[in-house]
Amino acid sequence: MAKRTKNIFEPKATRVLRVLLTNPRERWRIATLAKEAGVSLGWTHAVVATLQEQKYVARDENYHVKVVDPIRLLKRWAAVHSFLTESRIETFHTFERQLEPFLNQLKKLEASYALTGLSGAWLVAPYVRPVSVDVYIADRTETDKILRTLELRPVERGGDVRLVLPYDKGVFYGARSIDGIEVVSNTQLYVDLVNYPARGEEASTQILRLIEEEWSKVLAA
């Protein structure tokens, strides 16, 4: 019997989930899935075994893995995820009063980053206007450079920009450029927004609609 992981939503396991959910039409060999997710072959076997047991994935006659219930898996993951408590967050203030000019400053960054939360959703589906900007950063050593480029000042509370050192670098999987600004994948956006305060769930509904539309086209092709 294949080894299983008890928690398919722990950080390293979610790397496998992201690959499956970002590529719902793909059929994966375990070795290819492990390489794409950046985790070990044994760990990937354990995650897939649990996903199969819970009927989120199936394996065909060639033992290729395919996600079979992506929406249910995505919603369950989002339900247990807490963006504000699972990552390390530092809060800052910007003197730029308008959202769009500040977002445009991100184009100047010479650092690995990706927007998430309401600010990321605003660029994908502008439904809920954000009052703060959430930026995942890949390397904490680049913080000073980011602060200088964006002209940010640290504050204990009431800040309007949050630099987020993620619980796992897998959050950057599938990130894309929108109008020259890096934004996490729709999968990551949805997961981050469901339990996000200040109309996060409302914004997540718009992102989920986009995901469902995209998946229906991909799976029907």
Question: Care to describe what's here?
Answer:
- The structure is a single chain.
- The chain has 221 residues and is an alpha+beta fold.
- It has two domains: 11-80, Orthogonal Bundle (Arc Repressor Mutant, subunit A), CATH 1.10.10; 83-217, 2-Layer Sandwich (Beta Polymerase, domain 2).
- Helix content is 46%, strand content 16%.
- The strands form three sheets. Strands 4-5-7-3-6 form a five-stranded mixed β-sheet.
- Helix 9 packs antiparallel against helix 10 (200-220).
- The longest helix is centred in the last third of the chain and has 21 residues, at 200-220.
- The model has no long low-confidence stretch (mean pLDDT 92).
Write the layout of secondary structure elements.
Blueprint (H helix, E strand, L loop, with lengths): L10 H12 L7 H8 L3 H13 L3 E3 L5 E3 L2 H11 L2 H4 L1 E7 L4 H7 L7 E4 H8 L8 E5 L5 H8 L1 E3 L6 E5 L10 E3 L2 E3 L2 H9 L5 H21 L1
Parallel strand pairs: 5-7
Antiparallel strand pairs: 1-2, 3-6, 3-7, 4-5, 8-9
Helix pairs in contact: 1-2, 2-3, 4-9, 7-9, 7-10, 9-10
